[in-house]
């Protein structure tokens, strides 16, 4: 007999028997979403050389995935709640896998950006569905442990993406990094059909279409502004996006605060624990994605590691995430989430502060401790925050709860790459100009300032034209300029995360449990049982 769930599995007498196998499928689905970005950073040099990408092209290859992903999650999470959470997961996996195949076949910047955008649409279906299905499938007593494994998977994907991409790039072109997703998506698709029970909200009225569309427009414009402004200047496009985002967010808040069944009840942000948890998730991924962006470049361009070697050397981060996740499972119930989350954020700040010591003479050994500390911090903090966010939503809005968590994550990651990436670019350009002042023609200097890869390409031309000694001097100048830029960018990131840590510590209530007060899910179920 086919099992159809109209309320969470935990409302039955016994929990769903295959829930841990179902969690494995959900974690596989999460894995490819995160790997889609981290693997691409390793493939970026090969892609740039093959397609002749400009700095702007490369930025939009990376961020073309982010805009639809962040913009659509809230609306698609609500649709999944109403109609089918498993259906949203299945459709998202199909879209994501098909777009990955398309991305491997195209041979232009426009084609790759378009494929990445469609992948972002698929990810916007998958990501909130993974969390909502997790919360609907696991009983309260096991939910925190399941969420800990879910967040640890995200940390694993950060390091596994470059490792797998590096292995492929040894014998294949950059297009193979798109195909990483296809077999995993296929396995997850079959696993979802076999192991994940259908689920949707027991009581869900009409979807707030106006609120959903306002969220799409405002979040999409906000992410576009975050990407466009810092990297390409505050021209007409960025200013227009800023205006649309501002007006859209105001309209969204006003509409949602008056709607009887809003797509997101914005009054939840009055809860200090809920607001603090979302802020902590955003700040952590700002730090993680920003650091990942410049560390992978430093390992490849300055220290000279291959893509595979780069992936291997990011593994301490993944291992530390699992250790931190195990620790938070023990410490959070005893100390409260305020202690574990703020301790983790302090650890993240320390990791970035340690990276300010990087210079042209630094080796990989100088990066290991910051990577380990950052991984421990992620594992310690993110699971309690995600558990708190999901616990604030009733069963009928679990998809929206997952979307809120994931939107905070994605906005933080976008800010990290955009803001810290912009600081990195500006600092590198400035330091390189100082180092080679009067030694290069203006056109060659302008080209070298575009990126560290472009700088090394110019150094190769200098060596061919002026001799190996001059070429080596140019390489040293590029390496020094980029290393100094990494140190400066790390300082900016540490300051941002330190200020955020203070704010989160003020917001989070004392002795906070892993969920916000009594979870709204439990309150609703008790009312139904009563």
Automatic annotation (TrEMBL):
Keyword Membrane carried by entry: yes
Topology with respect to the bilayer: Multi-pass membrane protein
The name this protein goes by in its record: MFS transporter
Entry annotated with the keyword Transport: yes
Lineage per the UniProt record: Bacteria, Bacillati, Actinomycetota, Actinomycetes, Kitasatosporales
Pfam family, one: MFS_1
Entries under Gene3D superfamilies matching the protein: MFS general substrate transporter like domains (1.20.1250.20)
NCBIfam families, per the entry: efflux_EmrB
Alphabetical keyword list: Antibiotic resistance, Cell membrane, Membrane, Transmembrane, Transmembrane helix, Transport
CDD domains in the record: MFS_MMR_MDR_like
Ranges for domain Major facilitator superfamily (MFS) profile: 22-512
TM region(s), chain numbering: 20-40, 60-80, 87-107, 113-135, 147-168, 174-195, 207-227, 233-255, 276-295, 315-332, 367-390, 485-508
PANTHER family registered for this protein in UniProt: EXPORT PROTEIN, MAJOR FACILITATOR SUPERFAMILY MULTIDRUG TRANSPORTER MFSC
Compartments (UniProt record): Cell membrane
